[in-house]
Amino acid sequence: MNNTIKEDALQIMRAAFDAVLPDAAVRRALSGRQFDHPVTLFAIGKAGWRMARAAYDALGASQVRQGVVITKYQHSEGSIGNLEIYEAAHPVPDENGVAAARRAMDMAQSLTSADTAILLISGGGSALFECPYAGVTLSDIADITRQLLACGADISEINCLRKRLSAVKGGRFAQLLSPAKLFTIVLSDVLGDPVDVIASGPAHPDQSTCAQAQEIVQKYRLLLSPAAQEALHIETPKALSGVETVIAGNVRLLCEAAAREAQCLGYTAEIMDTALSCEAREAGAMIAAHAVTAQAPCAMIWGGETIVHLHGHGKGGRNQEVALGAAQTLAGQANACVLAAGSDGTDGPTDAAGGLVDGAFFAQAGAQAIAQSLADNNAYPLLKQHDALLITGPTGTNVNDLYMLLKR
Questions:
Q1: pLDDT > 90 fraction of the chain, expressed in percent and rounded
Q2: According to the model, what pLDDT value does residue 397 have?
Q3: 120: closest CA among 193, 34, 30?
Q4: pTM greater than 0.90
Q5: In the predicted structure, residue 1 carries a pLDDT above the cut 80
Q6: How far apart are CA 21 and CA 396, in angstroms?
């Protein structure tokens, strides 16, 4: 082992991210499929541009009649043939996303029973692909989204409400496409791959109900406008025809790739869990605790998506809080480190993917600074000060988060 342990962690992370890039996943999903006529292509999500380019290249220019791509700001890498490319805001939707969604809706409604559409879905689609339901405003949706994020609601709860406030979520986009046939390729960023939850299920029958939506409102004591309250009582589609869906990538593939690379570097690798879901700082402490008894050299790998309950107004994200949460438990472990990173290359409203701390970080940063940063949800400045941020830039994919303990 010639690298430092932190260099090993970075190499494993990069290999894992490369393994779940959408290019190969889309090609696999399209392999062997024949389309009688040129298709209409839609792509939504943080990996939307990469997925669209892969599909366009796999199908060939003559096989793509038209299309709309909607991705996050700075995630587009240029033009793709005759596709219309839009960038929009995440995690709170903006007017650019609405304008792009309306263009996609117009295109969808122009299709006939002789047409086929391909819909490429990746994480972030819920915010990026948005058109408010009749009477609901974008500010209603943005306000409810902020309330849900601040109170620590999980993605299923958030999407249960967003579906009912939207004209394109919860199967409603597939309704607009009917009677055209629809083939959907999904990169899953939701634990367990529930296709009605990923990107709020624009092309899948909705399993959630109005009653569940009301329970979530009461649980978190949400403040809703009269129009939003009315929309929550209008049920989403429970059955759709002419739709086929394929899951092309998920967090398990991410973790398996990390384990393979760790083994190549000489570590004994074990995937501990692919559905980690708890408070971020607690996840960090739990992961770091394994360093005390783990037999070196080892790599312990988790996948999932942790939760942050906002108490402060600092700068950070859930993976940065995982890293800070690991710091105290990891203190003094000279040959161990903990990495936490979002596979899309972003963590919260920051330019970082997450954080990477070793056994020396606690002494360098100081117990008081770490505690205060966690209390203020302000992990970013402290991690940056001690060169512990992970800055990858947009990766072009999005299949949940990667957590890793290395010890040697």
A1: 82
A2: 85
A3: 30
A4: no
A5: no
A6: 7
142-192 confidence digits (pLDDT tens): 899 889 988 888 878 988 998 999 999 999 999 999 999 999 999 988 888
SS (H, E, C) the chain: CCCCHHHHHHHHHHHHHHHCCHHHHHHHHHCCCCCCCCEEEEEECCCHHHHHHHHHHHHCHHHEEEEEEEEECCCCCCCCCCCEEEEECCCCCCHHHHHHHHHHHHHHHCCCCCCEEEEEECCCHHHHCCCECCCCCHHHHHHHHHHHHHCCCCHHHHHHHHHHCECCCCCHHHHHHCCCEEEEEEECCCCCCCCCCHHHCCCCCCCCCHHHHHHHHHHHCCCCCHHHHHHCCCCCCCCCCCEEEEEEECHHHHHHHHHHHHHHCCCEEEEEEEEECCEHHHHHHHHHHHHHCCCCCEEEEEEECCECCCCCCCCCCHHHHHHHHHHHHHCCCCCEEEEEEECCCCCCCCCCCEEEEECCHHHHHCHHHHHHHHHCCCHHHHHHHCCCEECCCCCCCCCCEEEEEEEC
Longest alpha-carbon distance in the chain: 66
Contact (CB, 8 A) for 339 and 13: yes
Q: What is the mean pLDDT of residues 336-363?
A: 95
- Confirm if 84 and 68 have CB atoms less than 8 A apart: yes
pLDDT confidence tier of residue 124, bands split at 50, 70 and 90: confident
- One-letter amino acid for residue 300 of the chain: M
